[in-house]
Design goal:
single chain; 4 helices
Length: about 140
């Protein structure tokens, strides 16, 4: 599935649509360059899950937990992970295979740990379509 976004608010709404439908136990890998809107997308998913707490990037803590929505949300930023073994130290398996929804920024850093059924969301800029334009491609286990 490919969607066009022409603003941060549209990116937020696309994330919200996913959050309204995503079931517990889902892992979502977010791919895209710095500043492309991955955290904005996560804020939308959080809104769709009914999370009321402010959502921020967990760059220095690796994972932020939000438990006030209809399903727990675990927001990972693994940009600073140098070795996937570091994920074992934070107990990633309980998150990935638990009852929440995991959103992982920079998931390619830990590719070997990602479940095969994970949803992949790629956010890309296309400056020919404007500074705020984003192409959002969602791959649901082989379907795009």
């Amino acid at each position: 599935m490919v969607l066009d976004s022409y603003s941060a608010e549209e990116t937020l709404r696309i994330g919200q649509m996913l959050g309204e439908k995503v079931p517990a136990g889902t892992v979502v890998c977010l791919e895209g360059d710095l500043g492309v809107g991955k955290t904005v997308f996560v804020k939308g998913v959080a809104r769709g899950l009914g999370v009321h707490d402010p959502v921020c990037s967990p760059t220095f803590t690796i994972v932020q937990e939000y438990r006030d929505g209809r399903i727990p949300l675990f927001h990972f930023d693994v940009y600073r992970i140098e070795d996937p073994e570091e994920m074992y130290e934070i107990g990633y398996e309980e998150y990935f295979f638990g009852d929440g929804v995991c959103l992982i920024e920079w998931a390619e850093q830990i590719a070997e740990l990602i479940p095969p059924e994970a949803v992949h969301v790629r956010i890309e800029k296309d400056l020919d379509k404007g500074l705020t334009y984003r192409r959002i491609t969602m791959d649901f286990g082989g379907e795009s």
